Amino acid sequence: MMTMHEYRRLSELGDRIKANLASKKEKDEYMKLLHKSGSISQSQYDEYLNQQGTKQGDDLVGAALAVGAIFLIGYLIKQLGRND
């Protein structure tokens, strides 16, 4: 289970990646958080680790942006449901 801080960090990192401002370390952290949340599988995470710094690695991060956005939307909907 992720903490509120980790959800916020995932959102911040996603914004930095979309703006093409993220460092390699930030991309790694983003992918690690997605893996921790269960949004990507161990094999997908391993594939990212093996492809870092390549076009394929960048493509994986790009695809992970969509996964992360869907994950964060789900989290927000869940939080709104709790506030009712």
Give a structural overview.
The chain has 84 residues and is an all-alpha fold. The protein has one domain. The protein contains four helices and no strands. The mean pLDDT is 89. Helix 2 (24-37) runs antiparallel to helix 3 (42-51). The chain has helices spanning 4-18, 24-37, 42-51, 55-83.
Report the sheet with the most strands, covering strand number, pairing sense and barrel closure: none
Strand content: under 5%
Q: Based on helices, strands and strand pairing, what is the structural class?
A: mainly alpha
- Using DSSP, what is the number of strands? 0
Provide key terms for this protein.
single chain; 84 residues; mainly alpha; 0% strand
Spell out the blueprint of helices and strands.
Blueprint: H1 4-18, H2 24-37, H3 42-51, H4 55-83
Helix pairs in contact: 1-2, 1-4, 2-3, 3-4
Short description:
By secondary structure, the protein is mainly α. It has helices spanning 4-18, 24-37, 42-51, 55-83.
